Amino acid sequence: MTGSIKVFLKRCKHSKNMLFRLIYHICLGLFLLFRFFTKAGYRSELYYGFRYVKRYHQRSSFTLLNRYPRLFTICQHFFEGRKQLRILSFGCSTGEEVESLGGHFPEAHITGTDINKRSIRIARTKYGSETKNFIHSLSSGFQKLENFDMVFCCAVFQSTANRTSHNNQISDWAFEQFEASLQMLDQKLSKGGLLVIDHCDFRFVDTSCAEKYETLDVANNRIQRDRPTYDRHNQKISEVSENDRVFVKIRP
Ligand SMILES: C[S@@+](CC[C@H](N)C(=O)[O-])C[C@H]1O[C@@H](n2cnc3c(N)ncnc32)[C@H](O)[C@@H]1O
Q1: Mean pLDDT of each 10-residue bin along the chain, 252 residues long
Q2: 38-46 long-range Cβ contacts below 8 angstroms, 24+ apart
Q3: Angle at Cα 61 formed by Cα 172 and Cα 142, nearest 5°?
């Protein structure tokens, strides 16, 4: 039933008939209003999205426990035998990524950071502990943090509009913003550490800091996804993405 409604609305959206397009927009408006009044998470995405508009990347807070099992395993093998690791989860949402990393690295100290203060509060309540802490990404406390052995930034450097609108030839957000965040994260990662990037609109290799990194040569690092890729001029260059996700920092 829900499936056939979705198909009907999709047809209305792309219909040449103005009346059908109007039906689509009215339904969308009602749906968003319903979401706004019933979902605090959605309200917080709108509020912080507006408040930190120039700093925001992905607005959606969607996350899951153990969302990246293959990536976690790759990193576990890389750090085999090392216990006192310092890990950063950038764009940690409500903390599930930090909790999952904790399962794979029980003796590590893991910091989760996010731009959405509501998500940080939830993460602290659900998963905060002696080894897992959460901090707002625009706080002075976060700015001072450094010497991480691994930085995870998954599903942060993307905009939903780049995937849902077929006509997005130019990225909905700027490569410049992506590169600036990577430069900031690069400063926080120690030489010999791992940078992990997944679900991304741009390519890490296009950034100025990529020359300090080497792709980790292991199975399952490279992945093809059914999502567009944009270049450093924000132009769409492909309807699919095929990227490596784990990089070793070889130069300070
Ligand atoms: C889709 S969630 C990803 C959560 C988790 N990393 C995962 O992969 O399951 C994206 C998160 O990135 C956060 N985010 C967006 N821009 C950010 C920024 N500039 N600094 C820190 N977090 C940001 C959002 O608030 C949101 O919680």
Answers
A1: 79 87 88 89 94 93 97 97 95 98 97 98 98 98 98 97 83 96 98 98 97 97 96 96 97 96
A2: 40/118, 41/118, 41/119, 44/116, 44/117, 44/118, 44/119, 45/116
A3: 90
pLDDT value for 166:
64
Cα 186 to ligand 1 centre (Å): 17
220 dihedral zone (left: phi>0; alpha: psi -120 to 50; beta): left
Alpha helices in the chain (DSSP H): 2-13, 18-38, 40-51, 69-78, 96-104, 117-127, 140-144, 160-164, 175-188
* Model-wide pTM > 0.85: yes
Q: Is the CB of 114 under 6 A from ligand 1?
A: yes
Q: Mutation test of ligand 1: which of 114, 138, 160, 178 has the most ligand atoms closer than 8 Å to its C-beta?
A: 114
Residue 110 structure tokens = 């893991």
Taking the centre of ligand 1 as the mean of its atom positions, its distance from the CA of residue 62, in whole angstroms, is 8
CA of 30 to the centre of ligand 1 (A): 27
45 lines ligand 1 (CB under 6 A): no
From the CB of 229, is ligand 1 less than 6 Å away?
no
